[in-house]
C-alpha cells in the first residue's frame, strides 16, 4: 500500500471507514491488555524456581566462612562481587553489591550526592541549581528521580549510535551546574540502541567543568540478548581510566531481569575511590544487604557462563514475541510512512515514533479499545515529548495471543489517527 | 566483700596484686572474644533453617493473586502487612513493609525529611539548624545517622522509666529546630528499660513547636522477651491519636532478630497520612521490596502466635546467657560499689555503669586481655559519654564458655581500674 501522504481524500475516507470497523470489533471484545512495563513473563520466571529450592544448608556458609544468616558484610559477599565483576567486566574491587533493586542504588547515589556531595564536593542540595543530561527517549524512572529531587533535566537527542555527543561535550564543558548524565548504554530503554565505541570513548573523554560530574551508566540489559550476534558495548570503566577520568562513572546493574524482578540482587561498579566514598555513608544507612540471596544466586548461576546459558533460554521465549510485534508492525504500517520503529538485538522494548503530534491520541485510542500502553511522553523528561511521537512498546509480559491482539489494536489506532490527520489537511 | 571506698591503702594494694595475677593469666591465653554487637548466636539461627526450605511453589502466589516472582507491590504484600500489624498492634493500613533492614528504613525516613520535608514542610536541609533529642545511653547507629546528615544531637538522660520527660517537654515546646527524637521504647538499647505508660502518654501528648517533629520509635525488641512476665509497652500510635497527635510518630520494627539479621523483613508503622506522604517518594526510590522473602516469613510464622512461640525458643537459649553474666557481675562486683547494671526482662543488652571516668580505661584493659567490647562512649551522641562510665554488654553471640571468660576478664578490668582509682586518692 502507498504512503498515507499520497492518498486522496476519498481513499483516506475509505481507509478510515475500514479501520473503524476493525477497531470497533476489537472494542466490543472488551479486552484488557497491559503493555505498560518491561516485565518478564510467567514462563521466564518459571525457569528460576530452582534458585529458591537450594537447600538452606548450602546457603549458610560463604567461601570466606561468613555466616550468611547473621549480621555483617556491608557491601556484598566476595563471591557475589566476583559474579558481577565477571558480568560487568571489571575487577571485583570495583564492585559493591546492593539490595534487590538497582533503581534504589541509583536513587541512593543521587540522593547521597544531594545530601553529602561526592568525594568532598559541596552537597548538591546546597547549590542554586543542579542539572542532569537526559538522552531521550529514555527511562522514565531515571527522570522521576531527578524530578523528585529538584534536579533540572536537559533533553539530549538520541541518535542511532547513542546520545548526541556534540551537544553533551559542549554543555558539560561549559556549565558546572551539570552534575550528571543518565545512560542506558546497551539495548537502551526504549530504543534498544547500543552505544558505539566512538560514543563510549567520547563519553569517557568528557572534560566536565564540574569535578563532581558523574555518568550514571545503567547497564540494565548487559546480558539480555535476543540475537545470536549480540551487540558489543565498550567497557566504560576501562575507557574512563584511559582518559584519566577514573572517577567519572557509576555503573549499575542487577539480576532483576535474569532471576527475579524484586527479589534479585543489584550491584554497582565504579573506581575504588568512588566506592570508598560511598561506603562511608552506606555503613550508616545499613548493616548490610541480604547475603542469603546473594549466595543463592551465586550457587545457582556459578559464573557468567551460567548466566549466559540462562539468558539464552529467556531469549528463546522473548525473541518470538519481538518477531511477532515486528511482523505485525510491518504488515500494518509498512510503506505507509506514518511510523518508524527499531529492531533491537536485545533488551525489553521496541521504540516507535508516530507522525508528530500523534502519540497521545494513539495512546488514548488504544486505551479505549482495551490496550494500556506506557504513557506517551513518559520517555522524555517531565513526561513531555516535544514532538509527541514516541511510544515505548513492551512486548515481554503478555502471552503471544494477547500480544498479537494488542499490537494489532495499537497499529489500527496509529493508522486511524494518522489517516484522520491527513484527511484534515487534505 | 566491702565497698572499695572503704578499703585501706594496703588492702587496695593487695587487691590489685591479686587481680593482676588473674588478669595476666587470662592475658597469656591470648583470647579473642568479641562482645561488640547485639548479634544472635548460631543456635538461634539454626532454628530458622526451615524458613529457607519452604518449596518455591509455595512462595509464588500471594493471597491476592500477586505473582511474587515479578515486579510490583511497592509497600508490601497484604499478608506481610497483617503479620506486622498484629505484632505492632496497629491496623494493616498503618503498615509499610520495607527491605531487609529497619535501620535503612530509619535512615531513609530522616534522609527523606532532609531532602523533601515531611507532609509539605520545608526540607530540613534548607534550614539553618536541625536538632534531634537523643535519650542516652542509646543506640549508636541512631546517633550515627544524625551525625552523618549534620543533625545536632541533644543528650537526654534516661531514667528507669524512660527519657527525662520534663526536659523533653520543655525543649520541644520551645525550639522549632528540634525535629526528631530517637526512642527504643522496649527493652531499650542498651539499658533494657521499657518506657512506662506515663512516659508513653507524655511523649504522645507533646506539643512540639515544629509541626514536622517526629518521634522515631524503634520498637526493635517488641517480642524479644527473656522472662515469662514480659514488660508491657503502651501503644504509642493509639496514645498519639488520643492526644490529637496522629502524625507525630514513626514506628519501626523488623524480623532481624526473629529470623535472619540481614535477611529478614523490616516494617514501618505510622498514620495513613504519614504513610501516604512516604509512598510518594518511595515509589520513585524503588519498584518494591523482596516479596518472596515476605511470603516466606508469612508462610513460616503465620501469625503473632507463631512468632511468640519462636521467640520462646530464642529466650531458652538467651536467658541462661543473661543469667550467667548477671551471676558473674554479682560475684565479682557485688557490694564493691564500683559498678551498677540493669537486669532486663528482654532485649539484647546489659548496660553497666562503672565509676565516673573509668569506662574507656576498662575497655582498654579488657581489649589487652583479648575481650573486645562495644566502644566506651558509643552509647552517647558523638561517641562521648560525659561521665565516661557506660558500657554496653552484648551477651547473646558468644558460646557460654567464651562468655564466662569474657565477663570475668571484663569484671577483673573494672576492679583493677577502680582499685587503682581509689589507691590514687588514698
TrEMBL record, chains A, B:
GO terms for molecular function: L-aspartate:2-oxoglutarate aminotransferase activity. The keyword Coiled coil applies. It holds the Pfam family Asp_aminotransf. The keyword Acyltransferase does not apply. InterPro entries: AspAT_Ic, PyrdxlP-dep_Trfase, PyrdxlP-dep_Trfase_major, PyrdxlP-dep_Trfase_small. Residues 2-36 form a coiled coil. Keywords: Coiled coil. This is GntR family transcriptional regulator. It comes from Ruminiclostridium cellobioparum subsp. termitidis CT1112.
Amino acid at each position: 500500500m502507498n504512503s498515507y501522504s499520497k492518498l486522496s481524500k476519498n481513499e483516506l475516507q475509505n481507509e478510515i471507514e475500514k479501520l473503524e470497523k476493525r477497531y470497533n470489533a476489537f472494542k466490543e471484545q472488551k479486552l484488557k491488555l497491559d503493555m505498560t512495563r518491561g516485565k518478564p513473563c510467567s514462563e521466564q520466571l518459571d525457569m528460576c524456581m530452582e534458585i529458591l529450592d537450594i537447600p538452606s544448608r548450602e546457603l549458610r556458609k560463604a567461601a570466606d566462612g561468613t555466616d550468611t544468616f547473621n549480621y555483617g558484610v556491608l557491601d556484598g559477599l566476595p563471591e557475589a562481587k566476583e559474579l558481577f565483576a565477571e558480568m560487568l567486566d571489571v575487577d571485583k574491587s570495583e564492585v559493591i553489591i546492593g539490595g534487590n533493586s538497582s533503581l534504589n542504588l541509583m536513587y541512593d547515589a543521587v540522593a547521597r550526592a544531594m545530601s553529602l556531595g561526592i568525594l568532598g564536593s559541596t552537597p548538591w542540595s546546597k547549590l542554586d541549581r543542579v542539572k542532569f543530561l537526559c538522552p531521550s527517549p529514555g527511562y522514565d524512572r531515571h527522570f522521576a528521580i531527578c524530578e523528585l529531587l529538584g534536579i533540572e533535566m536537559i533533553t539530549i537527542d538520541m541518535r542511532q549510535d547513542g546520545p548526541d555527543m556534540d551537544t553533551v561535550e559542549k554543555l558539560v564543558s561549559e556549565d558546572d551546574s551539570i552534575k550528571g548524565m543518565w545512560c542506558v548504554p546497551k539495548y537502551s530503554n526504549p530504543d534498544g540502541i547500543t552505544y558505539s565505541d566512538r560514543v563510549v570513548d567520547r563519553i569517557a573523554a568528557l572534560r566536565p567543568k564540574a569535578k563532581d560530574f558523574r555518568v550514571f551508566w545503567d547497564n540494565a540489559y548487559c546480558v539480555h540478548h535476543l540475537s545470536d550476534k549480540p551487540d558489543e558495548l565498550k567497557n566504560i570503566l576501562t575507557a574512563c581510566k584511559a582518559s584519566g577520568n577514573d572517577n567519572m562513572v557509576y555503573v549499575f546493574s542487577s539480576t532483576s531481569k535474569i532471576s527475579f524482578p524484586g527479589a534479585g540482587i543489584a550491584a554497582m561498579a565504579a573506581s575504588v575511590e568512588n566506592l570508598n566514598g560511598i561506603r562511608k555513608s552506606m555503613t550508616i544507612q545499613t548493616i548490610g544487604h541480604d547475603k542469603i540471596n546473594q549466595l543463592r544466586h551465586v550457587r545457582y548461576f556459578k559464573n557468567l557462563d551460567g548466566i549466559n546459558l540462562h539468558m539464552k533460554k529467556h531469549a528463546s521465549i522473548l525473541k518470538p514475541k519481538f518477531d511477532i510485534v515486528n511482523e505485525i508492525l510491518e504488515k500494518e504500517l509498512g510503506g505507509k510512512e506514518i511510523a518508524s520503529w527499531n529492531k533491537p538485538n536485545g533488551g525489553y522494548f521496541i521504540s516507535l515514533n508516530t507522525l508528530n503530534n500523534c502519540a497521545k491520541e494513539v495512546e488514548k485510542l488504544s486505551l479505549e479499545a482495551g490496550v494500556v500502553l506506557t504513557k506517551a511522553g513518559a520517555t522524555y523528561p517531565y513526561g513531555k515529548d516535544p514532538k509527541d511521537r514516541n511510544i515505548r512498546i513492551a512486548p515481554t509480559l503478555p502471552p503471544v495471543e494477547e500480544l498479537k491482539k494488542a499490537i494489532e489494536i495499537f497499529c489500527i489506532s496509529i493508522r486511524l489517527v494518522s489517516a484522520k490527520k491527513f484527511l484534515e489537511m487534505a
